[in-house]
Amino acid sequence: MRVLVVGSGGREHALCWAIAASPLLTKLWCAPGNPGIAAVAECVPIGVLDLPALVAFAKDNAVDLVVPGPEAPLVAGITDAMEQAGIACCGPTAAAAQLEGSKTFAKEVADAAGIPTAQWERFEDAEAARAFIRRRGAPIVVKADGLAAGKGVVVAATEAEALAAVDAMMDQHVFGAAGSSVVIEECLTGDEVSLFALCDGETALPLGSAQDHKRAGDGDTGPNTGGMGSYSPVPMFPPALEQACMEAIIQPALHEMARRGTPFRGILYAGLMLTPDGPKLIEFNVRFGDPECQVLLLKLRSDLLPALQAACDGELKDFDLRWHDVAAIGVVLAARGYPEAPERGSVIRGLVAAGAVPHAAVFHSGTEADADGVLRAAGGRVLTVCAIGKTLKEARDSAYAAVDAVDWPEGFCRHDIGWRALDRG
Ligand code: AMP
Ligand code: GLY
Question: Is the pTM of this model over 0.85?
Fold first, then answer.
């Protein structure tokens, strides 16, 4: 098979690494890719939102399967565009990607499908939103309706914070059109878990669960980020609970999407809160999480490629995925200043030594290479240093041993990835 992965982060590096191991693969490209990805795929300099160029490339090179990593091209219609050109694409259509592209849409689907989720209301008028907040009080959650690069959610501990979020989103338009309407929600409490499923429109195959670490600093302090690390499995989310959430959350969402005539194919990612009243849906995403993808794929024993193809073909029903009985962990190394203003250009060394730590694997996120091969930071999140182990503690120790081998003084990481699981023994 000839495969094109779309994206340039650690998630796409892990996807390329897994697909490159498939005996079915004959050629792998990644657009635009990164220097780490270049070790397993041919990188082509096309941006993830340049759909005409991606389609032309796929046609010219007789690509059999396109695998988009991030949400933006999915919401923009990459699957529709590829399918129109007769090329299989393992992701939802633009209509189905609205599960991530619009918070209102996701909430409507959840309500119609009877999926447990936070009570919510949508506002197009800032005055009405403020009145609602004053009536309901804090804590309360304010969300920009559209895509805001993972930054459009404010969990407000005080009424003033919630009112300020409405000012910023609706009056100052800090997220542009994404904030012209807002969803205001009941604040849920509990452990957060991400559940992943590969879907073919009807059948959902569990891909496992992981816990992300959204805050930049140890002990869950500091600003929100795209995710500073993750681990899997999550002991607070045992297999029986995962199965229950497949039945109560993922499967009903698939039914509802099919019923609306917009069946969901690709990876469905449910962000869950394990509340005292049971698991509740926080949000849907229509892709793998980053860095959750890296740890989940390290555990996968089966060939990923035929599973992705089966999802496109509507043939997941009799499909089975096998997993290594291990724990996996990923620690993100970010450039100083992330998330507000990451410094670019510092030199990264020691990756060969890091990758040589037993059971460790290093995925590139935001890196670039000079003409002479020197590797430099080129983004906020720069590397995901991962490891597997018989236990989470063993995996954690290997991952941090590999982190220590990376020679990059201008980078930082959290030192407590996995703490919620490890502190509970
Ligand atoms: P997002 O950026 O959309 O992934 O959401 C950011 C974070 O906001 C989530 O990971 C949760 O921690 C938090 N969050 C979103 N909705 C709620 C809610 N209704 N109650 C409590 N926390 C929430
Ligand atoms: N790590 C969270 C996400 O990819 O949305």
Answer: yes
